[in-house]
Amino acid sequence: MLTSFCFATMGTLFASYPTESPGDIMSMLNVVRMPLIFISGVFIPLDQLPPAVQTVLLLSPLTYGNDLVRAAFATDTHFSLFVDIAVLAVFIPVFQFVANGLYRLVNDKRRMREPLGRDDRCLKNNNSIDLSAKTGKVSSMV
Which residues form the domain of 51? Predict the structure, then answer.
């Protein structure tokens, strides 16, 4: 369950960047998740991987999730149960914090680039639109 929540927050990290379709986000996620499957000890035991890959796999949340599953079914684990749970618990807020920051950054830049509409210009100048008037003239609220 902890691994699922970790990958859900990874999904929010990728979803925080605006795209035209949800398929774009899924494609980006697959580019990240597929290599993680092969270097995280799912198919090949961690001890049999090259030393360079063993260093990289420490940055993969799937490594720790896979180790938790192995601990539930067998006794041969690479890390202790506490390390697996602690690292996954650290990944979750890190992914969410980065996702929130990216979302704010992208949306703030987008708002600054978009031209102000008529209603936004009026509100920016402390004016409001008189909705009861049929002429659509702007009345000042000073």
Answer: 2-115
